[in-house]
Amino acid sequence: MSFLDRIPPSPHEENNWVVHEGGVLAEFYDGDLLRFRCQVGHAYSRDSLLASQADMLDQALWASFRALDERANLVRRLVRDARVQNDTGRAWRFTRLFEQVEQQKEQVRLAMLKDDSDDSTTLAASFRPAGE
């Protein structure tokens, strides 16, 4: 019997499992304190789990932003190349694609700005325009 089998289901929710860093965490109460534990035995308070998930989300959003930025740079070169070759059809298609990628970048940037914590050290905080 593993320690996860010994943790009773939460009386507050049907699903008492939380996914974290690709694994599952068991939810349990230590007195009145809600805690989470992985199969290895690492324990998290609700605050440390929220902070850890926020960091993972920041990293994922930052990776998405970089990938979209690289795509925008490639498509910008393709637009320029199509224009040099007087291929208006390709230039038009790549211009539309460039606009879509730029919109996606903006959506990711805005998601990065929606920081629920007051922690200014997160990656999202580094994307706040001056004056925010």
Folded structure, characterized:
It is a single chain. The termini are far apart. The protein is rod-shaped. It is α+β, with helices and mostly antiparallel strands and 132 residues long. It has 3 helices and 4 strands, in the order H-E-E-E-E-H-H. The C terminus is likely disordered.
Please outline what is shown here.
The chain is of the alpha+beta class.
Query: What is the number of independent domains?
Result: 2
Q: In whole angstroms, how far apart are the ends?
A: 52 Å
**Strand line-up in the sheet with most strands:** 1-2-3-4
The major sheet is characterized as: 4 strands, antiparallel
Number of strands: 4
Considering the chains and any ligands shown, give keywords for the structure:
4 strands; four-stranded antiparallel beta sheet; 132 residues; disordered C terminus
